[in-house]
Amino acid sequence: MKKGALRSSFLLFLAAFIWGVAFVAQSVGMDYMGPFTFNGIRFLMGSAVLFPLVYFRRKKDKEKGKKRAGLKITLTGGICCGLALGTAALLQQFGIMYTTVGKAGFITTLYIIIVPVMGIFLGKKAGGKVWIGAALAAFGMYLLCMSEKLSLSKGDTYVFICAIIFAVHILVIDYFSPKADGVELSCIQFLVAGLISSILAFCFEEPTFESFIAGIIPLAYAGIMSSGVAYTLQIIGQKDMDPTVASLILSLESVVSMLAGWIILGQALNGRELAGCGLVFVAVILVQLPDKKFEKRIWFPWWFRQTFPGQYTIRKKSRRK
After folding, report:
1. Residues in Cβ contact with 264 at an 8 Å cutoff, skipping those fewer than 6 apart
2. Is the whole model's pTM more than 0.85, yes or no?
3. Where would I find the beta strands (DSSP E) of the chain?
4. For the segment 16-34, what is each residue's pLDDT rounded down to a tens digit?
5. Residue 256 in contact with residue 25, Cβ under 8 Å?
């Protein structure tokens, strides 16, 4: 694996780890305020944390005479990312009100499959290795999150739309991250997402300063670490990473959240959930294997190559003389 790809994989895994642990903070934060209020404050906090960094980076680059991305492309990218992120986060939170957490977790992770499907229409080809990994990860998420029969309710519909928008968010980042500064892009997207959530909070909830003080610890983690740090790691990490592979690594968020709940909250994992964790890890390792090393071990039949076009080094079947 190339050094740049390994660095990107590590940054994306670190982002997934932070998000996974953040589920504990989000669960505790709901004891003090509504979901719109929590999302609004956490995203605005994430933007505020990054703003000084944006200022000093711009000042430093100006002194060195370094050329920076245009303001227009940065603002456009930040607004697009923020609209996708804010809408997806709110739909997910709203959907959980009408469906179970297990269903919401599985349906949300369908972005693993939605990303490569959308990529086909955008002219991006995913090799057979990635498709096999996506299928393994999706089945692993089913074992990890599902405990009852899957049926599409009102809440399921909201979460499914949320999964589609999260897939759009990944592809939007893939488009803008090479053209704009990752930190500035992240700062703007948090500001946009935070404003959307805050407006809805004042429309449908009653935010108070007392609730903010009471929930400051989970808010600080969600705002500084989960928002300010993790989403920035996602933007930087996706610069040298295929969006489909990135979505598979980021899907480890659910695995980490289950482990965090087990260790921190004492929520033990059963055999089915552990099997799901194992499949997701196998899927992520699979897509990280070098193509040549993978192709030496796997023979792709002609119908697979026709269905999922990619670059294959086909090993001919040996015939006994």
Report:
1. 21, 24
2. no
3. none
4. 889 888 777 877 887 888 8
5. no
